[in-house]
Amino acid sequence: MIMENLSLLIYASMFYIISLSFLYFSKDRLNNSENEIYKYLLIVNLISLIFHVCCNTVSIYSEQLPIIFVNIVLKLFLISFIVFINLLLSYLLLFFFKNIKKIYFIVLIVFILELFGIILLPIHLYSDVVNKVYYSYGMSVNFTYLITSVTSMIMFIMIVFAKNKIQRKKIIPLFIYMVFGIFSMIMQINHPEFVISDCVETFLCCIMYFTIENPDIKMIEQLNIAKEQADKANRAKTDFLSSM
Questions:
Q1: Given Cys at both, which of 13, 82, 102, 142 links 202, Cβ 3.0 to 4.6 Å?
Q2: How far is CA 196 from CA 94, 108, 186, in A?
Q3: Whole-model pTM?
Q4: Which tens digit of pLDDT belongs to each residue from 129-154?
Q5: For residue 237, is it left (φ>0), alpha (ψ between -120 and 50) or beta?
Q6: CA-to-CA distance for 56 and 129, rounded, in angstroms?
Q7: 27-31, 36-40, 206-210: segment of lowest average pLDDT
Q8: Alpha-carbon distance 122 to 58, whole Å?
Q9: Residues 59, 131, 143, CA angle at the centre, nearest 5°?
Q10: How far, CA to CA in Å, does 121 sit from each of 50, 78, 90?
């Protein structure tokens, strides 16, 4: 019953992220680094959900499939988590550093090291066909837990020490993600088959869209900034003419 409800949650998340992506990409957007990273967050989340469905299917037919193929599918699912959380870290770093190329370079180096760890470390599949319980375990899975935990801790520390420098509405989605991420991790430790991390990612994308990444809101903000700059220029011109 739990696995059936989990499958429904995964398919519901997939439907929602597809709908949200269609809505997001159908609108005119500002061409900036934040929008670019959010775009990839949507894409990676969808890919992660697809891999989750593939993992479930592979787990059911694991005895009929080559073990190397099963391991590849399971590890691709883990890699999708690492890609997502590194993108989220890059998004947060944008609030602290202006050199986006340097940020991408540092995150890319870290990601490559993490990628090698997941690929090289062993992974195993627990498959109970009778009770319909399937989950992966092993050093590769533990390494992924470690990476996500450390990265989340780094992001939390960054938010705490710079809460006065970042707009509150930009912090709230990331903070909620960490809270739900910790909850999902605790659930997986006690019930390894109950994997909802990608559904939490979908929830984060939803919150980000309706708080800080809505194209309409960003366009209005940009118009307000342009209006303020125009008003300042007009006031400066008026003051100059008055002084003349």
A1: 13
A2: 27, 26, 11
A3: 0.82
A4: 777 777 888 899 999 988 888 888 88
A5: alpha
A6: 12
A7: 27-31
A8: 17
A9: 45
A10: 23, 12, 26
